[in-house]
Specification:
Blueprint lengths: L4 H37 L8 H28 L8 H14 L2 H7 L3 H28 L6 H25 L2 H5 L5 H25 L2 H7 L1 H9 L15 H35 L5 H28 L1 H19 L19 H25 L7 H30 L4 H20 L22
Length: about 450
């Protein structure tokens, strides 16, 4: 049994589009919302409006929480000439790509309602895209090879995210907010992300023939079922076993907690750098690049680590590393060095934190999704992908509101790293305590030069 690297890379173009758009969305939208709401309310302190920013960001995620399982179930039952996932991927991509550039345009025009509507449209159609796109990998990859395949497609995704981050460095948001109201500054990252997302979807469409591949690898998928790392064999004709159900709930519960932490950092990071540290928003991009590079290393090595110690201890190790990095973040203070721009120098230790977190969470994300879809047959991958993303979206619905209220009550940006640290510790405790370490059966994986071969 060997992983088809060429085919996996092609599937990875779906992740390029996802993380490309998501990185621009998470880096820019919270700060755009902060500024437009602060102006409308006449607030003098950005902390006064973070709870509203959190509610708006969470409302989009609430819609996604409902839509993800729906699209997962629908795609499982869809059968078309181009496959069961591809119709949703193409439709979601093109609608989201058209709507995305209108977000900064309406901000520039000071139309807060229209801006929020466009954010909702983008997010909802990305949910139509996201679940089927993610389900595509386990559709065409035997269970014992999914951790390695997940590492490859996540690396592809992070390349898209890294490119979006570079756009953030070229088009610096803080320069716009400091009075240089050039529309191109805030519009171009969104336009470029939309164009590249469409290109990545087209590359996927023309190079991944779902129906043909499914027929070619039928025997391999059946062998993968036999070698699955689960407590009890999966049988679609029987209810899920108690041991498998406990394992599923434990993984999803821990996932909810680590996404509470991770999304809090992602949502408020640009605001944290700009308002709390007093530094230019281009430094957020540098942090994301550093974390992204560490994540690539994590994704590249996580599959091999999981082969040695199992997916459970790979995830637990990643959570412990992330926890240690966030503890360090709690002690970082704004620099006293004022630059010529009037902004403060960027605290370099934040880069160290993001490198540790990037590597640690790569181990977590690389192995957690394969553990969830390991618990179902190929007929229910879309549904179980929906479970995985419903848990993450539930966390992303709750955490912006909760943290926004905490920031408003405490009037202290230092609560962000403390909040994330506590939740990461809780997720590690739940996961390590409740999830069994079940290693996959011995697989005769091809090694050496032969492993680089491919079958079309």
């Amino acid at each position: 049994m060997k992983l088809n690297y060429k085919r996996t890379v092609r599937v990875g173009f779906a992740f390029v589009g996802i993380l490309l758009l998501w990185q621009v969305y998470d880096s820019w939208c919270p700060t755009l919302l902060t500024e437009i709401i602060k102006g409308r309310m006449g607030a003098t302190d950005e902390l006064e409006v973070q709870w509203l920013v959190g509610i708006i960001m969470a409302c989009d995620n609430l819609a996604a929480l409902i839509l993800l399982p729906i699209f997962g179930n629908l795609s499982d039952r869809t059968s078309t000439r181009i496959g069961k996932r591809m119709p949703y991927i193409l439709t979601g991509t093109f609608v989201a790509a058209v709507a995305f550039p209108f977000i900064p345009l309406f901000f520039h025009m000071n139309k807060v309602g229209a801006m929020i509507v466009m954010m909702a449209v983008v997010l909802m159609f990305m949910m139509m895209y996201r679940n089927p796109a993610v389900a595509l990998m386990p559709d065409i990859t035997p269970k014992p090879l999914r951790a390695k395949a997940n590492g490859i497609i996540n690396i592809m995704g992070y390349l898209g995210g890294a490119f979006a981050t570079v756009l953030g460095m070229v088009f610096v948001l803080s320069s716009y907010l400091k009075g240089e109201h050039n529309l191109i500054t805030i519009e171009m990252p969104f336009v470029i992300a939309s164009v590249l997302m469409v290109i990545s979807a087209l590359v996927l469409f023309f190079n991944v023939k779902e129906n043909q591949i499914a027929e070619e690898i039928k025997d391999e998928m059946e062998e993968g079922e036999r070698l699955a790392a689960i407590a009890d064999p999966v049988d679609d004709n029987k209810p899920m076993s108690k041991a498998n159900r406990i394992m599923l709930f434990a993984i999803l519960g821990a996932e909810f907690l680590w996404f509470m932490s991770d999304n809090a950092l992602g949502t408020y990071l640009n605001n944290y750098v700009f308002y709390a540290m007093g530094s230019a928003t281009s430094n957020t991009a540098i942090m994301v690049i550093a974390g992204g590079l560490a994540s690539v290393v994590g994704f590249a090595t996580a599959g091999g680590i999981a082969d040695k110690i199992g997916r459970k201890w790979t995830i637990s190790s990643g959570l412990i590393l992330t926890f240690m990095g966030l503890v360090l973040m709690c002690f970082i203070k704004p620099s006293s060095n004022i630059l010529a721009s009037g902004l403060k120098a960027f605290p370099k230790m934040l880069l160290v934190v993001w490198v540790i977190k990037g590597f640690g969470m790569a181990l977590v994300h690389n192995c957690s999704f394969p553990m969830v879809v390991e618990l179902c047959s190929s007929k229910k991958i879309g549904r179980f992908t929906g479970f995985y993303y419903a848990s993450s979206m539930a966390a992303q619905t709750v955490t912006p509101i909760l943290l926004g209220l905490i920031l408003k009550a405490t009037r202290a940006w230092s609560m962000l790293p403390k909040y994330a640290t506590l939740l990461t510790f809780a997720s590690c405790f739940v996961f390590t305590l409740c999830v069994k370490n079940i290693k996959a059966g011995k697989v005769a994986n091809v090694k050496g030069l032969e492993a680089l071969g491919d079958r079309d």
